[in-house]
Amino acid sequence: MLGGNQEKLMSQNQPEIQYAAFVSIDWADQKHVWSLQEANSSTREHGEVGHMPEAIEAWIAQMSQRFVGRQIAVAVEQSRGALVFMLSKYEQLHIFPVPPAMTANLRKAFYSSGAKTDPADTDLLQDVLQMHREKLRRLSPDTEATRLIQNLVEERRKLVDEKTAQSNRLEAHLKIYFPQIPQWFGDVDSPLVCALLVRWSALEALQKARPDTLRSFFRKHQCRKEELIESRIKAIGEAMPALKDRAVVEAQLAVVKVLVQVIQVLHQGIEDFNRQIQEAAAAHPDFFIFESLPGAGAVMAPRLLAAFGSQRERYRNAAECKPHRGSRP
Question: Which of 3, 130, 153, 185 supports an S-S bond with 306, CB 3.0-4.6 Å?
Answer without folding.
Answer: 153
